[in-house]
C-alpha cells in the first residue's frame, strides 16, 4: 500500500520544482515567494543575486498588533496590499512571482491581484 502522506509530499515537490523552472529573476526583478502553513500566509521578497531577503510580510506581522489575521482570502488580499506598499517604498516595480508549487487560485490569486493593484508588475 502506498503511503498517502509521502505520495502527496512527492507530488508537491514536483509541482514546486516545475513552477520554479520557469522563473526569470535578475537584479531589477527579485523573486516574491509565497508560503502557506496551517495557520498563516507568508510572503518574502528575495534578491537571488545577492542572496538576501529584501522585505517580508505575513498574516502574523507585528504591524497588525492584536488583530492577527487568519489564512483566508481576505487576509491574503491585505497581505498582498501591504507587501505592494513595502515594495513601492523600496522602489521595486517588477518582481517574479513564485507561487511555490501552490495552484494559482483562491488565496494565492487574491494575494497576487492585491499586489498588482498596488502597482507591482509580474
Describe the structure.
The protein is α+β, with helices and mostly antiparallel strands and 122 residues long. It is built from three helices and four strands; from the N terminus they run αβββαβα. Strands 3-2-1-4 form a four-stranded mixed beta sheet, covered by helices on one side. Strand 1 and strand 2 form a beta hairpin. Helix 2 packs parallel to helix 3. The protein starts with a helix and ends in a 5-residue tail after the last helix.
- Overall body shape: globular
Q: Total number of β-strand segments? A: 4
Low-confidence stretches: none
Q: C-alpha Rg, in Å?
A: 15 Å
Q: What is the total domain count? A: 1
CATH topology: Nucleotidyltransferase, domain 5
Measured between the Cα atoms of the first and last residue, the distance is 43 Å
- Proportion of beta-strand residues: 15-25%
Report helical residue fraction: 25-40%
**CATH structural architecture:** 2-Layer Sandwich
Query: What is the average of the pLDDT values?
Result: 88
Structural category:
alpha+beta
By CATH reckoning, the class would read Alpha Beta
Order of helices and strands: HEEEHEH
The biggest sheet amounts to: 4 strands, mixed
Amino acid at each position: 500500500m502506498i503511503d498517502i502522506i509521502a505520495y502527496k509530499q512527492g507530488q508537491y515537490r514536483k509541482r514546486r520544482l516545475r513552477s520554479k523552472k520557469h522563473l526569470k529573476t535578475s537584479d531589477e526583478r527579485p523573486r516574491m515567494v509565497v508560503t502557506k502553513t496551517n495557520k498563516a500566509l507568508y510572503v518574502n521578497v528575495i534578491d537571488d543575486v545577492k542572496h538576501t531577503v529584501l522585505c517580508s510580510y505575513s498574516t502574523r506581522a507585528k504591524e497588525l498588533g492584536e488583530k492577527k489575521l487568519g489564512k483566508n482570502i481576505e487576509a491574503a488580499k491585505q497581505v498582498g496590499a501591504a507587501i505592494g506598499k513595502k515594495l513601492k517604498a523600496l522602489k521595486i516595480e517588477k518582481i517574479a512571482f513564485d507561487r511555490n508549487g501552490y495552484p494559482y487560485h483562491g488565496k494565492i490569486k487574491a494575494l497576487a491581484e492585491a499586489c498588482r493593484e498596488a502597482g507591482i508588475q509580474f
